Amino acid sequence: MHRFYSANTNLQQKTIALTDKQEIHHLKNVLRFKKNNPITIFNGKGQEAAGQIISITAEKVEIKITSTKQAAPENKISITLACALPKKAKFEYIIEKTTELGVDEIIPLATKRTEVILKGDRAEKKNARYQTVAINAAKQCKRTTIPTIRAITKLKDIITEIPDYDLALIPWLEGERASIAETFKLNKTVKKIIFFIGPEGDFTPEEAKLCIAAGAAPVSLGPTVLKVDTAAISVIAFANLLINQ
Description:
Structural class: alpha/beta
Number of strands: 13
Largest sheet: 8 strands, parallel
CATH topology of the largest domain: Alpha/beta knot
Radius of gyration: 20 Å
Distance between the termini: 29 Å
């Protein structure tokens, strides 16, 4: 059954109105849904409901709710991905795939070697686009929650948040590092984790040392050098495999 997103809607009500223009367009003009079609709605906060369309206009779709469920937590741990912005559309790919893998928050990072510089209106438009990608990925993979996509943030500002996490990991290409598998085995009880993924060319030594000094553990992802998107997706997959069992 097709799923539609209705932000922050209380799905315990007998009827609800879907008012998002993009969702209405998809339902009405792409899928050509009609009155009485069955439909699934989720609100991004863990609630999902089955319903039936009562009416459709260009402004809203009224839906009769027939059943509601509160989904169980999708992960045993909360995962944040702080990732340097790569070139082209790779960051959208990262958002899509890590959403499917269960990431809870994604922070686009500006670092010294970041080649993509976004400011002002352009940054706001790009952030809105990133959130749309996360919503669409959640719809497709049947998640009931949607990861938060933060505004583009400087690395130095995220470093100050490291103490808020039970575990912070920074894959790095230099210095002494433990394998990521060994690190997870030693930290089975963590509830909140953040990964720092650097740009093409990696973090500068100064950036990495600042992260490590603040409490991030340097780790290795294997013998080969991974691109930004590969590294970002890999660490979330590792988390699911090694901790979220």
